[in-house]
Amino acid sequence: MRWPWQRKTTSAELVLGIELHQQQTFAVVRNAHGVIACYRPAVDEQGTAGLEAWLRAHQWQHLDTTLSLDPQDYETHLIEAPNVADDELNDAVRFRMKDVLSQPVEQCVLQTFRLADDAYRGRSSMAMVVATRRDWVQQWVHWCEQQCLNLQAITIAELSLLHIVGQLEPETSVGVLRLNGSDSVLYVYQNGSLYLTRKLEVGADALTPMANDGAFELVNDPQFDRLTLEMQRSLDYFESQLGVGAIGQVWVLLPDHQPDDSRLVELEQVLNLPVRTLSLETQFNHSEDGLPLTASLVTALGASLSYELDD
Predict the structure, then answer these.
(1) What is the mean pLDDT of residues 187-209?
(2) If you average pLDDT over residues 202-209, what whole number do you get?
(3) Hey, CA dihedral for 75, 78, 81, 82, is it positive or negative?
């Protein structure tokens, strides 16, 4: 399988990927062989002060940097793509989005990209419009300047994770499940393209076994049942509406602050397809602390993979 996008090349020895998630900042520094260091905020830490101190402590400046926005800070809209050249898409959709966005379009930065030609049974050309506040983008540009970082791109989780999937080259379509505490997001990829993003209103809390008189109770759990139901609906929607076959496997990103995957076997049994924790430890993780790459670090790594480094 050939994943059809070109990564940028750089002569730099190190690059930085930053993931913003629920008012926290996560970061990875990698070389050509993988991740050499990670920044993990404390559970109750918010803002950028900790990351700034970490960068200063390592004297990391002038690194080529890709920043992946917090999903809370951008909105995505699926639309029928206008019949224009790709470089004219943004201008063509701007007026159309005027009454759709939650904020005035004049105050937003828009980025539009087409979905694969066969999505939605090829009935029409579809595109995803990503919108975020202009002043929010400017704030992060200014922050990178203050940290003496070479900001090369601002991206979103959907595309950061696409780089991860592309590196692993699955033979089937794959659903990447990101579990937060009380909600989740399912991203579906196939043949190097994003096909679907779907928010689920139940999260990692549903995978925590319930205590019952000192024992664990794994039956009659409405939260877990709700997660499996929403997952099954998403899988059915992909197969019936997009018309490109069934999802072949699900990769679960290890939650940042509650890395418990003990119930994935049950999830696999209910969905009747392979469900695995996405582990990048052997292929990518060479950091000295030996801790696993959790969801936000995986996304930060994906952002940094937009660059191909020389050995």
Answers:
(1) 85
(2) 78
(3) negative
How far is residue 50's CA from residue 164's CA, in Å, rounded to a whole number?
Answer: 26
> Within 10 Å of residue 155's Cβ, how many Cβ atoms?
22
Domains in the chain, CATH or no CATH each: 8-71+136-162+283-309 (3.30.420.40), 75-134 (3.30.1490.300), 170-277 (3.30.420.40)
Query: How far, rounded to the nearest angstrom, does the alpha carbon of residue 256 sit from its chain's CA centroid?
Result: 13
Q: What is the predicted pLDDT for the residue at 1?
A: 29
Strand order in the sheet with 193-200: 193-200, 184-190, 174-179, 249-253, 275-277
CB neighbourhood size of 23 (10 A): 13
User: Quick one: average pLDDT of 33-41?
Assistant: 94
When comparing pLDDT for 92 and 51, which is higher? 51
Angstrom distances, CA of residue 265 to CA of 16, 216, 224: 34, 15, 12
